[in-house]
Design a protein that fits this description.
two-stranded antiparallel ribbon; single chain; 11 strands; 2 domains
Length: 215
């Protein structure tokens, strides 16, 4: 924590995104983990960029793709080649994110978690080896439970997503962001829905509370 505070103090920006990377350390090239090696810690800070007012009010576009990543997606590592390639698919299409499916079920985005809303119920894929747990994912579910918003954590079929009333992507930088077009087709009414607006407000209130406590 001291290292993070020192890093933040060296930058002039009020809101910052801090990235930490820990490797097994310097050693001769070998696939096996070297014994007695001191881990290497790298940290960097950059201005925190959150969604624009336009993106919040109008939503963003996403495209879908088959999730062809490895079977340990719950491990947060620097092995992000597949995620980068999938994110490029979205960038090439002028979209904000990729919504991934594996064997007919929703997993996540290339750099975010994904929620769907159907008939007022928030649907979230469960945490397993195919999904990288996200802090914002946890916050959204906690807020849904605290404020008695209907929600289910279960396997979400691709058909449920493609016919959803709302789709959201969540992450520390995206916060809670509505997807209003998927593969060129409107999601629901084509505008951020009422459940999204409620969750977005709850998330902003939560963020302000956390910031006051940290001050």
């Amino acid at each position: 924590m001291r290292l993070v505070r020192d890093l933040v103090a060296r930058n002039a920006t009020d809101d910052q995104s801090v990235y930490l990377q820990v490797t097994r350390g310097v050693a001769k090239r070998d696939h096996a983990f070297p014994k007695g090696t001191k881990p290497t810690v790298f940290g960097m800070s950059s201005p925190l960029s959150t969604p624009s007012r336009e993106a919040i009010e109008n939503g963003v576009a996403a495209v879908s793709a088959i999730d062809y990543r490895w079977q340990k997606c719950d491990v947060k590592s620097t092995s992000l080649l597949a995620n980068c390639m999938l994110r490029q698919v979205a960038a090439d299409a002028g979209a904000a994110e990729v919504v991934m499916f594996r064997d007919g079920f929703l997993t996540e985005g290339s750099s975010s978690n994904v929620f769907a809303v159907k008939n007022g119920t928030i649907l979230a894929p469960p945490k397993n080896n195919l999904v990288l747990p996200g802090i914002t994912y946890d916050v959204v579910l906690e807020l849904a439970q605290t404020h008695r918003l209907a929600h289910e954590v279960r396997a979400v079929a691709e058909n449920d997503v493609r016919n959803a009333d709302e789709i959201w992507v969540t992450s520390s930088t995206k916060e809670v962001l509505a997807v209003t077009r998927l593969d060129g087709k409107s999601v629901g009414s084509g505008k951020p829905g009422s459940v999204f607006r409620r969750m977005h407000q709850l998330y902003q209130d939560f963020k302000r509370t956390v910031m006051r406590q940290a001050a």
